[in-house]
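FIELD: query
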Amino acid sequence: MATINSREDQDGITIGWQAIVRRKGHPSQTKTFRAKKDAEAWARSIESEMVRGVWRDRSEAESATLKECLERYAEEIIPTKKGDGRRELGFIRQWQTRPISCRFMAAIDGQDVSASIKEMKAEGKAANTIRLHLALLSHLFEVARKEWRMASLTNPVELVRKPKLPQGRDRRLVADEETRLLSACQSVNPELAAIVGFAIETAMRQGEIIGMTWTMVDLRRRVVHLPDTKNGQARDVPLSTAAERILAALPRRMDGKVWTYTQEGMRASWRRALMQAAITGLHFHDLRHEATSRLFEKGFNPMEVSAITGHKTLQMLKRYTHLRAEDLAKRMG
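FIELD: result
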């Protein structure tokens, strides 16, 4: 049975009403309201949920703000993720500056998230950047619901429409761009040319290539074993004859790494090579598109290509595949 007590100031004037719900098998629940009818309604609702077995403790969710939970997420969750977490920490700091961060977790709904989406659009953020911000917020709510005693929460990110992603990039090497690119890379640094050629042959990501060690390479089997990839699964990348030749020609480093380049060094050298080759609008990641498309053009089926590239879904594989109509026409006869 609920108890409703008046709260009075020093002069004996009623300033609020405290509702207390005690029921066997449940922790005591207390909440204060300005109006007595609100206290009574809340108590009836809590008692009803307890009787029906659907009650969830809301105290944590009603007393913790999003800003506080973001700080906890940064301390407890980010260190468990791959990488250094700098991008995710940047997302967290931006969320903490928004009006939504001052709201209690239990009070945040889809309208609050939609308002934040509008803010980000007004700031000029791209659709994919906004989706990444939302993904972090969504994961925070799931962690809070499952691990931080906030089981009563509903994930508000699931209630809103996400910005529509633009069509995937379809940039491929055209005309003599491959020859010009490799020549320019050779001029900048022979290792850069080797990396670019290797990327075109294997469809590996830049980070996967830069992170290679000789322990991952089996030239006899013509395979590179990647124990830790972006999608969280290990995979074996088969080497073409050209890719095998590139690795076989490399000197062995004392530290066991295949390449001397770092990510930052690669970016600088890549820009220099593009300028020297007079090539515009080409990203290093486009080489993965190029390589994936070439695998299909060689006759590999989707399952074989996904095994090589590591794409988990055919939809994502499709975004990385851009077949030339003229090449398809040749196969049609």
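FIELD: remark
Residues 127-147 form the longest helix (21 residues).
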